[in-house]
Amino acid sequence: MLEEVRDHWYWRPGWRPDRSFYAWHFTFEGRPEIAALHASYGDLLNDLPGFTPVPLEWLHLGLQGVGFTDRVPDADLADIVEATRRRFARIESFKVTVGPAVLDTESIQLPVRPIEPLQHLRDLTRAAITDIWGDDAVPKFPELNPHITLAYCNHNTPAAPITTRLLTHTPHSTALSITALTLLALTRTHHLYHWKPDLSLDLY
User: Fold this and answer.
1) 147 lies in a domain?
2) What is the pLDDT of residue 137?
3) In this predicted structure, what is the pLDDT of residue 180?
């Protein structure tokens, strides 16, 4: 059982306020099912001490990083995008279930299942990076645990009161079609991840 929730906002290696990172993510602009799910947890998150809620426009599902924007030449990025596009050419859209919310070690998040089709897309993005840079240049990430974060912990705090609040809140979930993958230039400022979308690859 989780005993403590950790502060999420320590600086990971290489990160600083003025630096951005290219990454493949799923985003949810214009997706009413995600907007409704986000709203269903609004009262809980806005009244939860020690957590910073994620605004609707910045909800995201991370898949695979590429590299810091100041270390990725434009020509290499274009080649990686084209290699990814080729590998995605025959990939069809698919449905997932999002939610209900759970407490993780640094956040409250909505699990996304099943994992397998998302893992396949991650494998393809990693293979595309390998096509251009070689296997030893693919950014190393933890084992895929697909989720959408609703709120990040902003200081170390006991888990039990948060778990109790979650258990007493009506659980909500939704079905979602995964239809496109977006390349972001991801930036972190003031307890918030935000981005400028570069381009999207549609699934068919």
Assistant:
1) yes
2) 80
3) 96
- The number of beta carbons lying within 10 Å of the beta carbon of residue 104 is 19
Share of the chain above pLDDT 70, in %: 99
Is there a domain that residue 4 lies in? Answer: no
Q: What is the count of structural domains for the chain?
A: 1
pLDDT of 49: 87
CA angle at 108 for the pair 106 and 114, rounded to the nearest 5°: 105
Q: Give the pLDDT confidence score for residue 194 in this predicted structure.
A: 94
Burial class (CB in 10 A: 0-12, 13-18, 19+), 159: middle
Residue 42 CA: distances (Å) to CA of 38, 47, 56, 103, 197: 6, 9, 10, 15, 26
Q: Tell me if 14 is assigned to some domain.
A: no
pLDDT under 50 in the chain at which residues? none
Bridge-based pairing state of the strands 157-158 and 4-5: antiparallel
Residue 17 placed within a domain: no
Domain range enclosing 114: 25-202
What CATH number is attached to the domain comprising 184?
3.90.1140.10
Rounded CA-CA distance 75/84 in Å is: 14
Describe the strand order of the beta sheet including 60-68 as a list of residue ranges: 60-68, 20-27, 180-188, 193-202
* 151-192 pLDDT, tens digit each: 999 999 999 999 999 999 999 999 999 999 999 999 999 899
